[in-house]
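Class prep. Protein, please:
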Amino acid sequence: MVILAFSFPIMAGCEPNSGGADASRPAAKPLPINDWRRLQAAGWGERTGGRLGLWVSVARQELIGVENGRARFRHVCSTAAYGTGNTSGSNKTPLGWHEIQERFGDGLPAGAVFKERNHTGKVWTPDDHTGKDLILSRIMWLGGLERGVNAGPGIDSHARYIYIHGTPAEDKLGQPVSMGCIRLSNKDVIALYDRTGSGTCVLITEW
């Protein structure tokens, strides 16, 4: 039986997200019981307190918005081509609990090109078949919440510049091809940005 409402305490590092409501979103669907049990075992209830959190499944190459045991939305993503890992310079996607700590791109058009988190003034379009690993549209900069796992010297996700961001390689979404970040389509990253806020919890798992 899936329990749909919770009142867990929030662990340090996860704050209520400040994203706006999305009145037009489709009705949420309950997660499969096995998925929900695994998330609960990973501390989902304690970390999110029943609010919206993000689950990045490396195995599925999918980012799922979960609230009260239900999937609010699903986005196809790309994690790292080199697999999972936490070491600086590895170009791998770190596992474990994170939060969105900084956000960039308010009001910018889809395809806005960033360099060092500043808009360059350029806008990528789908007919621009660049081979560059551009960071587009929106940036959600993650910080690790687990000391010794994804926070601390040599393994710190924030210091490694692990982002959720838009990509020009939309045709490769669903495959692990990034340099460590979590890539989304430009439409999806803007939608995600609007649904979340600083402090939103993000769990990255192998499964």
User: Anything to note?
Assistant: Residues 1-12, 18-25 have pLDDT under 50 and may be disordered. Residues 29-205 form a domain with the L,D-transpeptidase catalytic domain-like fold (CATH 2.40.440.10). Helices lie at 33-41, 44-48, 186-195.
